[in-house]
Amino acid sequence: MKKKLWITIIAVLVFAILFVPIPTGVYKDGGTREYTALTYKIVDWNRMTGDSTYAKTKIYPLPYNFKSIDSLWYYEEDNIENVDIKFRATVLEIEEDVVFVEPVENTDERLSSDKIGLNTKDLEDIGVAVGSVVEITYDGVILELYPASINAISWELVNDLRHLEYKEQWLDKNTAKKCANDTFSDIIITQIYSNCFFAKTVLPFSNEIKLNGILSDEWCVGDQIIGTYSNVYKDEENNRFEADFKNIKESDWQAEPEMAYKPVIYLYPQHETEVFVNLTLDGKLSCTYPEYKDGWSVIALPDGTLTDATGLTYNYLYWEGETYAQYDLSKGFCIKGGDTAKFLESALEKLGLNRREANEFIVYWLPLMEQNEYNIISFQTDIYTDAAMLDVNPIPDTLIRVFMAWQATDEYVDIVKQELTAPARTGFTVVEWGGTEIK
Questions:
Q1: Does pTM top 0.70 for this prediction?
Q2: How far apart are CA 47 and CA 73, in angstroms?
Q3: Cβ-contact 430, 267 below 8 angstroms
Q4: In angstroms, rounded to a whole number, what is the distance separating the alpha carbons of residues 402 and 161?
Q5: Residues 253-269: pLDDT tens digits?
Q6: Count of domains in the chain?
Q7: Cα separation of 21 and 33, whole Å?
């Protein structure tokens, strides 16, 4: 009798060990709970996946019961739509291929940890720095360590920072110059904070503008606006403006076809040099900066910094104007709108522009081109240089002039390809670039 009782007890114990699950984990992913037996595991999923929650109870038999909760999640992802989650964070530390960020307040990620690490080895280099705000896409899993860890899928810099207050001093009003309230008109929003926003002029001067006040939610980064302002100051040394904005409205300014826009001239002498630049235009100038007075006279440094007679500094000489040139589109390239940036990066390098010059070229022209189905692009040579003759004293050792004529089209056009070359940049180098849209 006693022997049978022991057999029964042992059988019950074995059954319990093999088949009775016990709680083995509660996770901060929304409330997932885990129960484990020797032969199977029950997971009561309650994991947040973007805007929804994945709620389902699943049984995982031997040998899957020995897998981790994150490994089991892999088998569930095929059943989930929009599993990837995005959150915003401020970059705290950068250590080779690992970046640590602080999620913004009132997010699930911030509730999990105030410091999260992500491996950036396979992520795009977006030029982050300590203090940058980024939007990170990840697979929804936060490893509960400290610092916490996530598997980041992609990231991008964020310019809409309405959750943050800008607290730094933009310029010193005690030393800045008071300006007229109509100093600038059509501008493009570049960054938004809770208490101000930043902008650049539509015509591409090298000034940055900070406008104090709360910008309503109807406005976004990239919007082109015009408004009224007060208390306008300018930091001459750093080319910075600051003002209080009263009201703004949408701007309808557009580039005029056949107009030569943003030809900019960079001067790179081998040592500090007084340089005189004269432009003979077959047409008329509509805007220059600094002001063109029978030519430009500046002191140029090897890094390209230019200083005029009043002591103001510039990154380049700027002009725009109307010419009587008849641009030739018989040779060039027909490029998909979405491929324009990649094409220009390659083409401008072949034409002799350095990274800084190419970046400024692309930033100006890309917004006008990338939304088109296709763009016919042709880099003009004698037609442009004969219409806009440049005389530089002292004579440069290297002169590079890049002028792009382009035209939007709804369909692909077969066009004879141009050969793109440039001289080696040696000695005193002068670089100019500009462009025009052909209607």
A1: no
A2: 9
A3: yes
A4: 36
A5: 665 544 456 689 999 99
A6: 4
A7: 12
